[in-house]
Design a protein that fits this description.
The chain is of the alpha/beta class and about 240 residues long. It has 9 helices and 7 strands. It has a single domain, classed as Rossmann fold (3-Layer(aba) Sandwich). The protein has a 7-stranded mixed β-sheet. Helices cover about 40% and strands about 25% of the residues. Bound molecules: S-adenosylmethionine (SAM). The site of S-adenosylmethionine has 21 residues, from helix 1, helix 4 and strand 2.
Length: about 240
């Protein structure tokens, strides 16, 4: 599955109900208000920043969606860039943005359009889970490249599938090849996008973190069959 195919699905999801498609909280379908949505992002960022103290400077929010966390980062950093593969998500992010130091960039490639060593803080949340491991691992290497020495990278990724937590639908979705699922979904729900969840076994994630110091780890779930880990890491200062 390539970036273009994934991007097409996120275009459709962003055109449908962008705030709910990035934060699918039960009961919030069609009813997130921007105030609640961005307050939710601020709370989540505050929780993340209890684990790490990034140096001042620029921050990157990869897979920023509608800017839930990007705007929150805008209150803490000099400058913030939100990157996303979906134009429809970014259109809504720009429309709702209230922070002059926050900007949004569309990126449909498997690398990052940013110079090396630029960011003090790189954050990616509930995004690497929506792409094949090879692509996610490539982005992880890119995060390390664009971090400045002493900079902090925080990312969440599913690492383990737990059958007993998956339920019937989750188990079927886990077994059926993704291309077949996509074809079925588009036959049944015309014009509605689809997002998958992929995981990366923990040893592979750790291998990709070579050169980074792991400060702490937080285990989440299992949720809909996946156990996730949030890694709090630092690029050594020299
Ligand atoms: C579940 S949403 C999370 C949004 C945001 N991180 C948040 O927590 O509010 C996942 C986002 O990742 C974006 N995305 C998926 N694949 C991507 C890729 N290859 N590059 C950049 N963004 C991507 C989607 O368009 C979507 O906006």
């Amino acid at each position: 599955m390539d970036v273009q195919t994934l991007g097409n699905e996120w275009e459709l999801l962003g055109a449908d109900d962008p705030m709910w498609r990035v934060a699918s909280v039960p009961g919030k379908r069609g009813s997130w208000t921007p105030e609640e949505f961005f307050a939710n992002g601020r709370e989540q960022l505050d929780a993340i920043l209890t684990h790490v103290s990034p140096p001042p400077g620029e921050a990157l929010d990869f897979g920023c969606g509608v800017g839930r966390l990007t705007q929150a980062l805008g209150a803490k950093f000099d400058k913030v860039t939100g990157i996303d593969v979906s134009e429809s998500m970014l259109k809504e992010a720009k429309r709702l943005n209230s922070k002059p130091n926050v900007s949004f960039v569309l990126n449909k490639s498997d690398g990052l359009p940013c110079e090396s060593g630029r960011f003090s803080f790189v954050l990616t949340h509930i995004t690497l889970q929506h792409m094949p491991p090879k692509l996610a691992l490539g982005y992880l290497r890119e995060f390390v490249r664009v971090l400045k020495p002493g900079g902090i990278l925080v990312f969440q990724v599913p690492t383990k599938w737990v059958w007993r937590n998956a339920g019937f639908r989750g188990s079927i979705e886990h077994i059926v090849p993704k291309r077949l699922l996509l074809a079925y979904h588009h036959l049944r729900y015309r014009g509605v996008g689809f997002s998958w969840v992929w995981g990366i076994p923990e040893p592979k994630v750790r291998e990709a973190l070579t050169g980074l110091e792991i400060l702490s780890e937080e285990r989440i779930g299992p949720f809909k069959g996946w156990l996730s880990v949030t890694f709090y890491t630092r690029k050594p200062a020299s």
